[in-house]
Design goal:
single chain; alpha+beta; Jelly Rolls; three-stranded antiparallel beta sheet; PKS_assoc_dom
């Protein structure tokens, strides 16, 4: 990976529209060439107060027991066992009091909107939406792992399968490193990027395995930028999505086999439909039909006159 690209920082605040477009193009170029880019959104100096508010919001979420320790199938698709020791998926639209986290979340949305046209031009990735924000707390592995449910697995599968670019904001207070390693090159030496409070990164999450390493507890906010259906049909998802799909398929199969007439599996409607379509129990049959709609008539001449000026032949 070229060192001159890995150290270049795209500046995204206090600039004109032309400079902002230039920074967006530089960010997309870095993503295309090396799989990640480092951005300056002003959190290290003029927006320090936003990070302090975000830390206070995280403390309130901790008191509300919003954090939990995820299973391996989840944290391997995020920042690893230490980088995502505890996580809190957020729906910030329904939490008006989280002003610090909402400001950072809005910044990630704006970055997605500004860079999307250049990402499409440079890499052929049509970014059309973004996933929910996830708050990460790095640190030692403590606490009990929350058991993965089919409903939660379905939500993470959507994040991992359709997510192509991961946007990360380092809130702090700890100073750490982002370890990036290509999925396709197991023997490759990982590249480490300094992640101090206020650092913003965009990473090709479908190409690079991401781990966050920090000796002290720190906070990160992330979201996946999701590609269009055509892009996702053309490109393979990251390996974490494939493993999560296998787990979900096996779980739905086991739930279907355990069902009885008096006891049905408790699942959301979309998962119940998926289970009934792909899992079978006992005897089953295929029902096929064919229908057509034609003009009523008594003879071939009348039939052809209904759609053609003259009979064929």
């Amino acid at each position: 990976m070229p060192s001159e690209l890995s150290t270049r920082v795209a500046r995204f605040y206090d600039v004109s529209d032309a400079d902002r477009d230039a920074a967006a193009e530089a960010a997309a170029t870095n993503l295309a060439v090396q799989g990640f880019c480092v951005l300056d959104c002003g959190f290290k100096d003029k927006k320090k107060d936003v990070l302090e508010k975000a830390k206070a919001d995280a403390a309130a979420l901790d008191e509300a027991e919003a954090f939990y320790r995820p299973e391996e199938l989840v944290f391997t698709g995020l920042f690893g066992d230490e980088g995502s020791a505890r996580i809190a998926p957020l729906n910030l639209r329904e939490e008006p009091e989280r002003q610090g986290l909402k400001s950072i979340d809005a910044e990630m949305t704006e970055l997605a909107q500004v860079t999307a046209p250049f990402i499409s031009f440079k890499m052929g990735l049509e970014i059309v939406s973004r996933a929910r924000a996830v708050l990460h707390e790095t640190g030692p592995l403590e606490g009990v792992i929350q058991k993965l449910t089919p409903s939660e697995a379905s939500m993470w599968l959507s994040d991992f399968r359709f997510g192509r670019v991961l946007c990360v904001v380092c809130i702090g207070p700890g100073y750490g490193e982002m370890e990036l390693k290509p999925y396709a090159e197991e023997e490759a030496k990982p590249l480490k990027v300094t992640a101090v409070p206020g650092t913003v990164l965009m990473i090709r999450s479908d190409k690079l395995r991401v781990r966050h390493l920090c000796r002290t507890r720190t906070l990160l906010l992330s979201c996946n930028l999701q590609a269009s259906g055509g892009t996702n049909a053309r490109l393979a998802p990251n390996p974490c999505a494939a493993k999560l799909q296998v787990w979900l398929d096996e779980r739905l199969h086991n739930l279907k086999q355990a069902e009885t007439e008096d006891r049905r599996a408790e699942l959301p409607r979309h998962l119940r439909l998926a289970m009934n379509r792909q899992c079978f129990k006992g005897q089953y049959m295929a029902v096929r039909g064919l229908a057509s709609r034609v003009a009523p008539c008594w003879g071939p001449e009348t039939f052809w006159c209904g759609g053609l000026k003259t009979p064929p032949g």
